[in-house]
Structure to design on (109 residues):
């Protein structure tokens, strides 16, 4: 992913509009590119700060909130990958069981 692509994903990230594939690529880039991380932090601070002002919430550590958001996004992606692996594995096992049943039925004949 290029910096330009990552910069275009900052607001969709903040608004939780990225697909899992986009989110994975975005997180990988932001963790390796200091410039893009700083851009994300600036936008996140402004957007979250304004939202807090509108809600009348108390001041919070924006850097900490961003880190928590990034961590939650990483856990979402990791959970999705684990789910996908288990899903494929369950499908393979189901097909193997079905094949075994079919073979056993054919041997009865």
């Amino acid at each position: 992913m290029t910096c330009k692509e990552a910069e275009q994903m900052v607001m969709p990230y903040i608004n939780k509009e990225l697909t899992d594939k986009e989110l994975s690529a975005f997180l990988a880039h932001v963790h390796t590119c200091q410039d893009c991380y700083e851009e994300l932090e600036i936008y996140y601070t402004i957007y979250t700060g304004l939202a807090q002002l509108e809600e009348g919430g108390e001041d919070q550590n924006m850097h900490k909130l961003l880190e928590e958001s990034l961590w939650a996004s990483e856990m979402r992606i990791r959970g999705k990958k684990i789910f996908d692996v288990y899903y494929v594995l369950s499908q393979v096992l189901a097909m193997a069981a079905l094949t075994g049943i079919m073979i056993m039925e054919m041997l009865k004949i």
The longest helix spans residues 62-108. The chain has a mean pLDDT of 90. The two ends are 58 Å apart (CA to CA).
